[in-house]
Specification:
The structure is a homodimer of 136-residue chains. The first copy, chain A, is an alpha+beta fold and 136 residues long. In chain A, strands 1-2 form a two-stranded antiparallel ribbon. The first copy, chain A, has a two-stranded antiparallel ribbon with strand order 3-4. The first copy, chain A, is globular, with a radius of gyration of 19 Å. At the A-B interface, strand 2, helix 1, helix 2 and helix 6 of A face strand 2, helix 1, helix 2 and helix 6 of B. The structure holds a DNA duplex (20 and 20 nucleotides).
DNA sequence: CCGGATCCTATCGGATACTG
DNA sequence: CAGTATCCGATAGGATCCGG
């Protein structure tokens, strides 16, 4: 009981509520199966080869398709197009069309996207530590 | 200049140093291409369908192969075996062999693994927010 | 300039069978 | 019990071509 089935874009996973009752103190104290969904969501939203780089490229001031592409070596138009669409669906990026001729399209990150900062910080910290640990 | 090529298990990516000079304040202030490697590392270590669940299952007190497998619905022996090996390489899990008969093998999470708590917390927070945002 | 459509490959993960 | 080996389908990502 308490188990839940959760479907994210990638996977169907069954979470057993009992897994979350006895976690050590340094992991979330009373995490629930519900919580795990959120972790999977977050992971899904930012995983993939290009997503983080695209976000950072836009943050760096590249607002047009070609500019973003130029800023990220080796990315193909197919991938950039696909990932931008996903980022837009997830409200991390907005796409604005200016009806001039030729048509002008601008991408920008949302304020919400910036709420991401804390996670990025944590990941930098942890990843840095990780290199040291694994090297040993 | 300042660009770097980085190979993690999954991808070969080129980071352009210039991407990181003008990021908004709510993202890391002076993140470098170096920092992005760490983010990718972290992402890689915990991504995949089962890794987080395995960590949590062990935290919950399942220390033997069969116990972990029973705790995680639908995981196959192949996947559990494979992921445990990776987690061990990344020092998140230790494998101990007790030479009794029949042989007894125990998995446990490392203290290092628990340093992960902050990221999990952040991901829960962000993922929760995300559901609300995307629903609208 | 901004992509969509098509085809292809490599990797991820599942099913099943088998072993010390 | 604690896995390994083999085969296989699904999907992520790449290459290329085309169109508004």
């Amino acid at each position: 009981m308490g188990d839940s089935v959760y479907i994210c874009n990638r996977y169907t996973v069954v979470y057993r509520a009992e897994l979350f009752s006895t976690m050590p103190r340094t992991l979330p104290k009373h995490a629930t199966a519900e919580d795990m969904k959120y972790v999977q969501d977050t992971l899904y939203v930012i995983s993939g080869k290009w997503k983080m780089l695209i976000i950072l490229a836009i943050c760096a001031g590249n607002n047009r398709f070609k500019d973003i592409q130029r800023a990220i070596p080796r990315i193909t138009t197919r991938m950039l197009s696909k990932e931008l669409k996903e980022l837009e669906q997830n409200k991390l990026v907005t796409r604005r069309v200016y009806d001039e001729s030729p048509v002008l399209i601008e991408y920008s990150t949302t304020a919400y996207c910036k709420s991401f900062g804390a996670i990025i910080h944590e990941m930098i910290r942890w990843g840095k530590e990780h290199r040291k640990i694994v090297k040993k």
